[in-house]
Amino acid sequence: MAFDRRFAGVLAGLVVALLATLVALAWAVGRGDLHAVTLLIALAAVGAFVGLVRHVERTNRLIAHFVEGLRHGDVAMRFDTRSGGSFGLLAEAMNDALRDLGAERGRVADELRFLEAMIDDLPVALLTVDARRSVTLANKAARRLFDRHDGADVTAFGVYGDALLDCLSRSGAVAQAIVPLQLAGGTQRAIVRAGLVARLGHPVRVVAVEPVQGALDAVEMGTQVDLVRVLSHEILNSLTPVTSLAGTTAVLLGEETPDLEEARLAVMTLARRAEGMRRFIDSYRTLARLPEPRGREFAAGPFVAELERLFRVEWLDHRLDVVADPGLTLASDPDLLAQLLINLLRNAAQASGERPAPHVRLSIRNDPADGPVAAVEDNGPGVPIAVRRDVFLPFFTTRASGTGIGLNIARQIAVAHGWRIEIGDSELGGAAVRVFMAPGGGRV
């Protein structure tokens, strides 16, 4: 830059002048008879030395003032550019740097104000927990939700329930948990998530609390309506012939000469229909009392081998391919996972049973992107895209002999673990049901 060249030029000139005057002074002193000239040369040498010192010192002072201002955050200070020469250029360069720094600081401050306003207005309550177990309510939603505690320590939040206190007291992250909150208006369920961030070199946990009682109530009401609609339809379908047969039996037995054989057949039909209704109601009761998962770690290989033996005993005519990654370890409830996969295997076997060569494949692999994934595939007719969401509904089935509860139970088990279950197409030609068992998900 121009300042560098001018500063170096002036500095070099002063150094040359000082050296020249020193050489001349040595020559004059050596002559011994040039006293006046010696004095003038000596004064010139002193002047060159003083000029050199002042040139360097003035530059140092400007730079020192600039650095001092930066250290104290004073970006409003300005340097006099009227001195001209290299010092004017230096002052101008410093002023430009301070203006740029001030503008950047203003942009950063605006962005921080925007982020603070956005966080403060988020509808999800945010809390921070530092290493001293001190809790800070980070936004308006948190201040509105948590208004009954006294103090900032974690233990003060016990008034909102032990479940929340447990989430706040943990040292690690919480992927997702649904906990009951004891609030002024009563108990409400909320989704709690937590993550770790660094603040000024110290770890801080950020906890998000999102009340979902209203949404859960709406979902539960919708589910109840669907169940009532399906149950009403199925029960009425079963009661209509039962009512008709009961009337027919009463007529047959009320005649003067009862046709006992016809009455016996009618009663037997009634018994079969009643047994069908009993099995249907038992199926519904199974949906209503699915147990909670009890997670532990276990090897995938032996687990899959056991499922293979169970399948081959029941489905002798089916080809079953089994694939499991060597050394893969799963973290879940093995009993519930077995129930889930047995339901999927049974559905796959039934779907492919009408094929000349029924083929089913079970695989449990560790996907680099999704983690452990269990898949059951078949070469049956597949599941149309239009009904892939409906097949998980209770009692929905595309087969005349189906009960419509197997996939619903599988979905309940997956949701209880915090997993995702999806239906797609298989390379075998039929359907593929995949269960994404993401590590750390759910309540396992």
Automatic annotation (TrEMBL):
| Coiled-coil stretches noted in the UniProt entry, renumbered to this chain | none
**SMART domains in UniProt:** HATPase_c (SM00387)
Q: Which residues cross the membrane?
A: 7-28, 34-53
Q: Which GO terms describe its molecular function?
A: kinase activity
PROSITE patterns the UniProt entry points to:
HIS_KIN
Task: List where in the cell it is found.
Answer: Membrane
UniProt entry tagged with the keyword Transferase: yes
* One matching Pfam family: HATPase_c
**Name of the featured protein:** histidine kinase
Record the organism.
Answer: Sphingomonas floccifaciens
